[in-house]
Amino acid sequence: MGRVNTEAERYETLKFMIGLNLPKTPFENLSFSYISKVLYKELRSYFALCAMARGKSKYKETAQEILFSSRVKIEKNIHYRASRAVQKNPELLPELLKQKFFGASKKQGISIRLPLSSCEPTKLCSNLCYAHDVLDAAPASVIRGSLNGLIGSLFQTEPDKIIPFLELYWDKQIKKAIQVAHDENELTSFDRKSRIRFGHVGDGAAYAEFMNFLASKAKLFSNGSVQSVIYTRHRSAKDLNTDLFAINFTLDPTSEERIEFAPKDARIVYSAFGGKTSKKAEINFLEHHRFMHYSQIGEGNVCPATIPESEDRSCDALKCDKCFVQNLSFLREPDGK
Length: 337
Description:
- By secondary structure, this protein is an alpha/beta fold.
- The chain contains eleven helices and nine strands.
């Protein structure tokens, strides 16, 4: 987002983010332009912090240690102030729900962006998450995820109040997302099912009933021709409807005990931080960032999009849809390992 910062500017950014103190006054409106203006310095500073952590600055390690906490502080502030605004002025609820909900991932296509604060992070994933990489850390991404998270929270607590608005404003959005999913599929050079990813960033299982509602709509409106897909580490994953979702339950070297939270039909996948893979998982994702890409250490199948030698990292270019089909045949040992 502009020129490269000097080390002196990086130090000032680091100091600002460590002492981050956000006001709690309700927003006047919920437009992107307004929120980005009100939180201009905070959002830009977080983006700069991410670049620092993923780059070669002497402050790299210190910056990386506070990535997750900084992102979550900003997201929760947006959530709180937007929620207060809706409480103060109920007319803002339609404004919130009229906004674009679906987005896109270059690697996987049409998707939903959620706040990182919806995650139950492990010791490794919180600061190493790709949510802190490049455009996923940009101001618009942080705002969109935060507002989507607010909608999810409102649904979880007051579904009867929210559903009529969703049916009024979102049926068209869901149908458009289905069409985009089909359009993306038309561009592929292999046979696969059209799909929508529920949670490009963040964890949709935190809003399980909301995700189930949206996935049921996607299935209904597409006559079952679109597959809803979700990646999760969340203890609420068992509340996801396995008839609607292809569920990829994610472990890593510090969280293998979380397998107890995996739904029966979930596919077990693995975040191979430092390149350390597991043969217990059906798919391993090798850790990679802008200036760093780990090679495999250990056994197990590796996602081709994360292999260092892969030039094109999109799933379609690599003709791979392993994550996107419902997992009805992959067998785990009786103890779940």
